[in-house]
Design brief:
By secondary structure, this protein is mainly β. The chain contains three helices and 27 strands. The N and C termini lie far apart (about 75 Å). It binds 2-acetamido-2-deoxy-beta-D-glucopyranose (12 copies).
Length: about 400
């Protein structure tokens, strides 16, 4: 860059006169770099049905006035590029890596495809990447670890394949890692455990296999953890109890075995717990009553045995209880009918016995009740707001 000698005085000049000569910095070489980068992107868009870029991204006006573009307040450099929901079809040109001040990049809900050029690794100021709902395929590039300031990486609903790169574990500022609805395989990398600020980890609907590494439970800031619809196996590690801020835990539709880990009931902030459609066995422990903030409790289609614990009555904000398709025995505990907020109560396909107590009439918010395929006697059920067959 032999231009530096003349750039510095120009910069000072621009700063001093920027109020009266607002457009001058647009002509500085650096603003031109951004313009060239965006025009290259425009040229790589093969279909623009709303004609947004075609009519709006014209070289006559400053890039800062282009639709979807935001510049910094102190310099006319692009800091945000938001082209979401424009129905664009195209590819990402390497020139985009020249937007050196870019902090937010959102191209979600379009049809961008192809591979991601390595030049993007130059975007070291990026804090937010949103590529959701596009048609990207191939591996998630290992060089994503260049984005050292990144707090959100949203790549969901694409066709990314291969393994989750371990290098993502070095993104020490990452708070959201959302990779669901892709075609990712292999194990969840242990390096994920290094993400000490991670609050949301969504890896659902991929083909991740092996055990859930204990390292995941080193991410003590986690509030949302969803690994639904994979082929994970082994038991749920006791270290789950370290996630004391966890509010949403979705591990359903995997191949998990073993018992419900007792440490799970240390996660007292849990609002939604879904471990259904696995092969869990053993009983539902009394400690379930510790989860006093639980709104939604899904344990259906496992191999759970024993009685419904009486402590269930402590779940005073419980609205959805799904325990069907297990091997639960014994009577319905009376305390169950203390759960006044219950809307859905599904206990079908178990071996529950005894009568249905008239207290079921206390569940005034009930909209869906299924007690079928048990050994219950049907007395008193006509007091319930039963809308099932
Ligand atoms: C312009 O670009 C050069 C090299 O890319 C860089 O060193 C300089 O800081 C930039 N100046 C401004 C005002 O952005
Ligand atoms: C481009 O779009 C922006 C934002 O909608 C608008 O302010 C600007 O006037 C448009 N420019 C042109 C040349 O149409
Ligand atoms: C921007 O990036 C492209 C491709 O990576 C490169 O060819 C070009 O020289 C870069 N610089 C400018 C000023 O456009
Ligand atoms: C941008 O990326 C390319 C390819 O990764 C690299 O060769 C180049 O040095 C980088 N440029 C800057 C300014 O970092
Ligand atoms: C992913 O790839 C499959 C097959 O290659 C294709 O049918 C599907 O539409 C793709 N999905 C997306 C979101 O691009
Ligand atoms: C969980 O916490 C215990 C003590 O609080 C600690 O010894 C253990 O290493 C932690 N495990 C993980 C995976 O973070
Ligand atoms: C679980 O494992 C069994 C046997 O190993 C296999 O047949 C089944 O498809 C697996 N289910 C899922 C959801 O991975
Ligand atoms: C439950 O256990 C039985 C016998 O041990 C087994 O045949 C069945 O596949 C298991 N069901 C699930 C959902 O794991
Ligand atoms: C959890 O529940 C058990 C039994 O219901 C109780 O003894 C224990 O004190 C509870 N633990 C916490 C941390 O609330
Ligand atoms: C059911 O409701 C009645 C009257 O509102 C109350 O006295 C009783 O304790 C309730 N039973 C249970 C199990 O909550
Ligand atoms: C349920 O009832 C059937 C027949 O009515 C009986 O064969 C079975 O042993 C009963 N199961 C339990 C768990 O009571
Ligand atoms: C329905 O509930 C009321 C009061 O809760 C009770 O008096 C009545 O006997 C119940 N009806 C039946 C058929 O059990």
């Amino acid at each position: 860059m032999g231009n530096n000698g003349f750039l510095l005085p120009l910069m000072v000049f621009v700063v001093v006169l920027s109020n009266s000569v607002a457009n001058l910095s647009a002509e500085s070489p650096n603003a031109t770099i951004d313009q060239l980068a965006l025009l290259a992107l425009k040229a790589h868009v093969t279909h623009d049905p709303l004609n947004l870029l075609a009519t709006n991204w014209t070289s006559g006006t400053s890039v800062c006035n282009w639709i979807g573009v935001t510049c910094g307040s102190h310099h006319e450099r692009v800091t945000t590029l938001d082209l979401s929901k424009m129905s664009l079809i195209g590819t990402i040109p390497p020139h985009l890596g020249n937007l050196s001040f870019l902090s937010r990049l959102n191209i979600g809900f379009n049809h961008f495809h192809g591979s991601l050029p390595m030049e993007l690794a130059n975007l070291s100021s990026l804090k937010y990447i949103n590529f959701r709902h596009n048609n990207f395929r191939g591996e998630i590039p290992a060089w994503f670890d260049s984005f050292t300031q990144l707090h959100s990486l949203l790549l969901y609903s694409n066709n990314f394949s291969g393994v989750i790169p371990s290098s993502l574990g070095s993104l020490s500022n990452l708070e959201k890692l959302i990779l669901y609805d892709n075609d990712l395989k292999g194990q969840i990398p242990i390096a994920i455990g290094n993400l000490s600020k991670l609050k949301r980890l969504y890896l659902d609907n991929n083909q991740l296999s092996g055990q859930i590494p204990s390292a995941v439970f080193k991410c003590k800031a986690l509030e949302f953890l969803s690994l639904t619809d994979n082929v994970l196996e082994g038991s749920v590690p006791q270290e789950i109890g370290n996630l004391t801020r966890l509010r949403y835990l979705y591990l359903d539709n995997n191949n998990l075995t073993g018992q419900l880990p007792s440490a799970l009931f240390k996660c007292q902030e849990l609002e939604e717990l879904n471990l259904s459609q696995n092969a869990l066995k053993g009983s539902v422990p009394q400690e379930i009553g510790n989860l006093t903030k639980v709104i939604s409790l899904h344990l259906y289609r496992n191999n759970l045995t024993g009685k419904i614990p009486t402590t269930i009555g402590s779940l005073s904000v419980l609205r959805y209880l799904y325990l069907g398709y297990n091997s639960l025995t014994g009577q319905l505990p009376l305390t169950l009918f203390k759960c006044q907020e219950l809307e859905d109560l599904l206990l079908s396909n178990n071996s529950l016995e005894g009568s249905v107590p008239q207290e079921i009439g206390n569940l005034t918010k009930l909209r869906w009740l299924n007690l079928s395929k048990n050994n219950l006697t049907g007395r008193d059920t006509d007091n319930a707001t039963d809308k099932t067959q």
